[in-house]
Design brief:
The protein has 483 residues and is an alpha/beta fold. 43% of the residues lie in helices and 19% in strands.
């Protein structure tokens, strides 16, 4: 991926560190099977790891009969190593379900009312970050480059520096970084920022998130910050920049041309028997705005009765963190809303909403993209949202339209989409109607502009640009903290 000279692949390896493993293991009668995770990050980073013969370090559960902790990936033609870190039940509960997803996740998505500040969760979060840092320090070579990913591991860069790691460290924060007024409420705000500043480069999906982080560094730590240059001037200067994540554009283009995908898309249209198909795809999470979206579909049918019997909305909700009570409560809320709306509007041979509570294989998901006239993506807050980009890449430029929340990170790039305010049901209703009734010429212009942009900024370019920027030496004189 990219030019090898930019990544210094002959002189160093890439060490990727993430919370979840890119592969998971399961026991079967015929032995242990290893399955690749469906993830944009895996798609973007695996080719780089292969080119550098690097290592991926992550948390991953293993069947009891497996005693190894380091695996060659992929098994049939190994190109990099996978080192798995084991977490016990208490660590999973307090580090992952607790501090990561009951504290940092809601805070980053502006849900202060859902944010839990629990001292014991914080201590276990620190301990697990220690465990990750130690695991990296055990494997690192002098010229290796380290790329740490996401909010679950924010302390790892600083802890690696404390362990004497001197190589280049990059960190990518994959969710929104909250505004300063919200971030101030976190009792451990300085510790989080200090941990991230162990990096040489801190990346975000959007410029606004990067600016929020720079403001927090300036105000909370009193460091000299250049917003225009994205630079924090300290003894070891830290660069901060935005790198919007792309999608596997080439793979999607290949899939949509396959006979299997084309046939499946036709079957979906035929089985649902609706003139207009609208699609929503999300993890089941309160940040995704699914209840609000269902309310908007209900309001749309109320205000546009000509669409009754002709429009079907498909909502695919991928199970997520169902161990947490609020997620289970949300699942019940969504299912009740679907039942109520279908009971209200259904006619013989037609229902307005088709709800699927499961993850779809990517190939099948692409067929749903192809079958749908509109994709309705309305998160209340989202770091990026790759579904929006995947939908566009799956569409012929002469049809299809994206209705997108203005609070999704992808909205910074996909300005030709129909942008709506997800907190306003009337805004979503107007956006849906506009997308359904858009003139062919305007539809083609908008879709073509977004297509071309996604083609240029695919997932490989995202990874390459981040690593190229990390590889460049930052030459800035250190500046003391303000008194």
């Amino acid at each position: 991926m990219g030019k090898k000279k930019n990544l210094n692949v002959k002189k160093s390896r890439l060490i990727v560190v993430s919370n979840r493993s890119p592969y998971f293991f399961e026991s079967y009668k015929d032995g242990i099977r290893m399955t690749r995770s469906v993830s944009g990050m895996v798609t973007g980073l695996e080719p780089v790891l292969a080119s550098t013969r690097g290592m991926w370090i992550a948390w991953g559960a293993l069947p009891k009969e497996v005693t190894d902790r380091i695996f060659r990936i992929p098994p049939e033609n190994p190109t990099f190593d996978l080192k798995l870190i084991q977490l016990d039940a208490n660590e999973i509960n307090r580090y992952y379900l607790g501090f990561s997803n009951s504290t940092l996740w809601p805070l980053a998505h502006n849900f202060l009312g859902r944010t839990v500040y629990e001292e014991q969760d914080w201590h276990v979060y620190e301990q697990v970050n220690d465990k990750f840092a130690q695991a990296v320090a055990e494997e690192i070579r002098s010229k290796d480059t380290i790329w740490v990913n996401d909010y679950q591991l924010s302390l790892v860069p600083g802890k690696m520096r404390a362990l004497g790691v001197r190589g280049k460290i990059g960190f990518f924060w994959h969710i929104p970084f909250p505004p300063l007024d919200l971030f101030r409420t976190l009792p451990w705000r300085k510790e989080i920022i200090s941990g991230l500043l162990g990096s040489d480069l801190v990346g975000f999906h959007c410029r606004s998130y990067a600016n929020n982080f720079l403001q927090a560094v300036e105000e909370l730590l009193g460091l000299d910050v250049s917003f225009s240059k994205g630079l924090i001037r300290t003894r070891r200067p830290v660069q901060v920049a935005a790198f919007p994540m792309g999608i596997d554009y080439k793979r999607i283009q290949s899939l949509i041309k396959s006979n299997n995908a084309i046939d499946t898309a036709r079957k979906i249209r035929k089985e649902l028997a609706a003139k207009h198909l609208v699609l929503g795809v999300d993890r089941l999470d309160y940040s995704k705005g699914i209840p609000e979206r269902l309310a908007a579909v209900e309001r749309f049918l109320e205000e546009n009765p000509a669409y009754i019997g002709k429009l079907s909305f498909i909502q695919v909700s991928v199970p997520s963190r169902i161990q947490l009570p609020e997620y289970a409560k949300m699942q019940s809320e969504v299912e009740n809303a679907v039942g109520r709306i279908n009971g209200r509007f259904s006619k013989r041979g037609w229902v307005p909403i088709h709800y699927y509570f499961r993850a779809l294989p990517f190939e099948e998901l692409v067929s749903y993209y192809m079958a749908s006239d509109v994709c309705l993506i309305t998160p209340l807050r989202d770091g990026m949202n790759l579904v929006a980009k995947e939908y566009i890449a799956s569409q012929n430029r002469n049809r299809g339209m994206l209705v997108l929340s203005e609070f999704a990170g992808a909205a910074e790039e996909l300005k030709e989409a129909v942008l709506v305010n997800p907190y306003s049901i009337p805004s979503i209703v107007r956006g849906l109607k506009k997308a359904l009734e858009m003139k062919p010429g305007e539809r083609y212009f908008r879709m073509n502009e977004m297509h071309q942009r996604l083609k240029r900024r695919d997932i490989e370019k995202w990874g390459r640009l981040f690593l190229e920027k990390l590889s460049r030496q930052i030459e800035t004189k250190p500046v003391k903290r303000r008194p």
